[in-house]
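Two proteins follow. First one:
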Amino acid sequence: MSSRDAIFAALDSCSLPDAPMPTITVEPNNTDLIGQYEANLAKVGGTLVQVSSLEEVQAQLNAAMADNQQVISRVEGLTGNRELDAKPHDLHNVDLAIVDAELAVAENGAVFVRETASGHRVLPYITENLAVVVKRDTTVANMHEAVKVVKLESGQHGAFIAGPSKTADIEQALVIGAHGACSMTVYMIG
């Protein structure tokens, strides 16, 4: 018998009895969800901009494009100055990408973004700066509520994104933009 087989046999011989999943009851704090969301997004390095229409967002995109930035918009009704390339590797020099989010989570400042909203699953992570458009009325209190709303079929990709890329692995010093977007702006409409 090989060492590998011996290890698996030993693991099989010491199986644990089945145990039911615990029931978790979380009372959401539904008071001032937008205020909670803004505070928690700021804690993770993001910025919330509350707008009443996409025209306000387009004005900010126009300013970025006037500054010669490469802008990709994946939000219907907003235009950038660069098309989504067929190959994800060709997106390495995108200055700003703007995508739709399905919902916002007040407890941690996250948004949920589907691959279909970004075109390539790599776009929100490879862009220098990430902007997200989310509707105000899709804000939920916590992740327990969020996972009830999010439905992914087999093979689909989606991610909860909370602020720009960051790490504190080296000398416990927080570095923003270490592995992805250096900034994240959430435009909340409504």
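Second one, unrelated to the first:
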Amino acid sequence: MSNGVEWALHGCVTLSQSKEPVPAARLAELHGTPPAYTAKHLQALSRAGIVRSTAGQVGGYTLTKPASEISVLDIVQAIDGTEPAYRCAEIRQRGPLGIPPEQCTRPCAIARTMAAAQQAWSHALASVSVADLAAGIDGDSGGTAMADVRGWLSNTRG
């Protein structure tokens, strides 16, 4: 998983706290990331339909739907794509003890295990929303983190 996923998750949590569009430069400042890096990931989130941009002096980025309707899996796939982490290369058919292709009528135990793990991972990420993340982050901070983010966004707009 790329480092961009972490930023995108934090970025979407931040956007969930704003009633107004947040400029990319402000998101980069808040998260201490280079503006070009932030813009690249915002473009990926935009292509996936998770965020939208608004032009103009008060422009910036907003979520396209409520945070409760955007899953962690949606964001991971927007940044890293939808390909599974494991791709079977049918190694069992190679080498001096290789099995003939016609005997490989179903995925091997390794491929089945990896597919099950991918499914469990995807299900776990799909079951957590951006709103859930915001609540968890807030809980970890004793209930102050999201208020701090909202205050920072509204008081230092620029």
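SUMMARY FIELD: The mean pLDDT is 94. The CA atoms of residues 17 and 150 lie 6 Å apart.
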